């Protein structure tokens, strides 16, 4: 797909980032089918490569005005297909897309989504009102525009172009809140929405998995319930984390233990934080909102030696009308508490695989291989597909397994 020998005036200068490798304009030609009309640099996308991915760039009407992200040929291709229905066009419709090719080295590629969406809307409106794209000289007029856009995105990150008199195009790459590349989530981590509402604009995969981000289901379970490939779900969640829309927490179970952190005092000293905690953890009866003092005492009762189940049993009065799951999540998100993780370790390995194994663990080679002290109970459960209770029951029957909590 790349043609390294090609040089063009739109190439970024030394010292500038070069995330945007190419910007292109493609259409559905009434005789030739999908084709690239203009691209900068020239010949960056060869015909053979474009033919393999054209169905994702010139889409059916069901995917019109939908953001599409495609990893192919060692790059990321982004587009937002447009369709204008009008009798003046051949076949009574014009299908086009103005997309970007982003380097795989770009740490936060999701920041270009709004740029791609705006380009699609802008040129859709420009064509409807002025027939800019269907003009016979469209290629000549569009090339300098695309060249300026690419150079600006790779340079200052913003541009203002006067495409036609009275029709300017403004693009701003830098968001209000700086985006940082998020780590790829693990199978056993639980995504939690941290905003009051999900992102306004979502792609197809995000719209599929959002209903399953409930603060309880881990990544592997979400992929299974949404019937989406796990690697795609991970990439999508990673992008949402970069946009500060989700955070990742460990799985919360009643058999877990938690410990207070020094920042717990902020719950009392910061009135806003205390109010947010009350709003987040109060159950349906708002008239019985727990006081900040009661929530502070409930947090203070958490210790490495007692489980969440023990806490609810011994302090049921403090937990009245409190959603304990949300209480734990709030404490983790705001660094008021930390989770005490369990790491099972097998003290001795049998050469035969049966002499040193109890009846409960005989034959479970996959589970045995994970008992190395480096994998947490969450990772073991996600890897084996077994529930926490099943794993704990099997480990309890093996005298050669100890559990380290830290």
From TrEMBL:
- Report which superkingdom the organism of origin falls in: Eukaryota
A Pfam family for this UniProt protein? NPR2
Q: Which terms in the Gene Ontology molecular function aspect does this entry carry?
A: GTPase activator activity
Instruction: Write out the GO biological process terms.
Output: cellular response to amino acid starvation; negative regulation of TORC1 signaling; positive regulation of autophagy
Q: Which cellular components does GO assign to this protein?
A: GATOR1 complex; vacuolar membrane
Per the similarity annotation, which family is this? Belongs to the NPR2 family.
- Please state what the protein is called: Nitrogen permease regulator 2-like protein
């Amino acid at each position: 797909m790349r043609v390294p020998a090609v040089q063009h005036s739109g190439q970024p200068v030394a010292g500038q980032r070069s995330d945007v490798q190419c910007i292109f304009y493609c259409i559905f030609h009434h005789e030739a089918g999908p084709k690239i009309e203009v691209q900068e640099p020239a010949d960056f996308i060869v015909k053979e490569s474009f033919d393999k991915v054209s169905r994702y760039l010139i889409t059916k009407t069901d995917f019109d005005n939908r953001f599409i992200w495609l990893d192919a040929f060692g790059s990321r291709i982004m587009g937002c297909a447009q369709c204008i229905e009008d009798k003046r066009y051949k076949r009574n419709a014009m299908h086009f897309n103005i997309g970007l090719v982003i380097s795989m080295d770009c740490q936060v590629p999701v920041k270009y989504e709004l740029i791609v969406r705006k380009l699609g809307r802008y040129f859709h409106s420009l064509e409807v009102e002025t027939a800019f794209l269907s003009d016979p000289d469209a290629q000549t007029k569009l090339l300098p525009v695309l060249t300026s856009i690419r150079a600006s995105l790779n340079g200052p990150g913003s541009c203002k172009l006067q495409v036609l008199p009275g029709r300017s195009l403004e693009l701003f790459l830098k968001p209000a809140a700086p985006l940082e590349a998020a780590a790829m989530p693990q199978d056993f981590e639980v995504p939690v929405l941290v905003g009051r509402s999900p992102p306004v604009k979502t792609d197809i995969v995000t719209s599929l998995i959002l209903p399953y981000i409930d603060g309880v289901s881990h990544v592997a379970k979400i992929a299974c319930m949404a019937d989406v490939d796990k690697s795609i779900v991970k990439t999508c969640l990673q992008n949402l984390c970069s946009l500060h829309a989700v955070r990742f927490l460990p799985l919360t179970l009643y058999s877990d233990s938690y410990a207070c952190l020094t920042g717990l005092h902020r719950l009392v000293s910061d009135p806003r934080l205390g109010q947010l905690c009350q709003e987040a953890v109060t159950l349906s009866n708002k008239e019985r909102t727990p006081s900040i003092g009661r929530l502070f005492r409930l947090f203070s009762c958490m210790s490495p030696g007692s489980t969440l189940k023990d806490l609810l049993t011994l302090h049921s009065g403090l937990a009245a009308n409190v959603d304990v799951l949300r209480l734990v999540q709030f404490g983790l998100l705001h660094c008021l508490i930390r989770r005490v993780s369990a790491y099972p370790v097998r003290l001795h390995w049998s050469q035969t695989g049966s002499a040193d194994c109890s009846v409960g663990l005989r034959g479970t080679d996959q589970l045995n291989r994970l008992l190395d002290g480096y994998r947490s109970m969450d990772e073991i459960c996600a890897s084996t597909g077994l529930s926490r209770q099943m794993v704990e029951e099997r480990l309890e029957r093996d005298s050669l397994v100890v559990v380290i909590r830290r």
